[in-house]
């Protein structure tokens, strides 16, 4: 996975590297190093800003605990009135769940530490892979030329340029989508007076990178954060409406215009590949599924015997099963030869019939 993310990272940085080399006259190695260090600076600044916001939450932890306790007591009262379950019975059930969670938490903690270590190592490897891919990109292209000597170099280069353009546009579109969702969420939460609106907006934008389930997780997190500050029903309903509207705008406006227009695939293939990516590599696989599928579609469209697969990946709606099938051209000589054979066969039958009736 770090290598695949390194490939995407390298493609995203190619315009900046080209600008440094041709406009600023940087040597190749210096231009690549500057592009990677600059991007790491931006990521570090974002992480630092988020840490400041989290620190503000930690300072307000006492009030958060009081609000959580207040909401918990309200929930207990509602359960007692609606389901006639006494407070002692509810407390015993909560204690049982707590003990089970502690037992499960011990194994979960070990798995989390292992996963965190692997994720941290992968994040460290990504910029190194990107650096090496940018340094040796001519080597890789020459390798493809030698690997497929029967294919014209112009055709290979054209496919690579299509892949670069599609992936770069997709990544930029995804970043634009993340920024728009973050800004809209921040503005909406600030208008409703929700605390930590900026942090929640950024987290919503980041989680929106995870297809389909990201917005649901962001909605749950925003609701939980809202309940730690206030229990007003109007605010909770407002948060739900805001996230629902943002999801509709994202799914029907931003994704078709900003993201899906760059990698033209139908929803069935997209969802299938996201599920496969999640099964193979978790959240990282879900994010990688769409750009990797876009690369495959470009290759399928350019290779003759794979064009049906490219058609299957495409976002087309034929009116009937045979409407999109092109008729196979038939040379006139075929009909002429068939006609000659039929005439000869008819003449032979006629000769046999005459012989028999003599």
Question: What report would you give on this structure?
Answer:
There is one protein chain. With 358 residues, this protein is an all-alpha fold. The protein has a domain at 263-315. It has 12 helices and no strands. The protein has helices at residues 2-22, 28-59, 61-83, 87-135, 137-147, 153-191, 197-207, 214-227, 233-259, 267-302, 307-313, 332-356. Helix 6 (153-191) packs antiparallel against helix 7 and helix 6 runs antiparallel to helix 9 (233-259). The longest helix is centred in the N-terminal third of the chain and has 49 residues, at 87-135. It is extended.
What class do helices, strands and sheet pairing give?
mainly alpha
Largest sheet: none
Radius of gyration: 31 Å
The average pLDDT score comes to 78
- What's the overall geometry? extended
Terminal residue distance: 86 Å
Task: List the defining traits of the structure above.
single chain; 82% helix; mainly alpha; extended; 358 residues
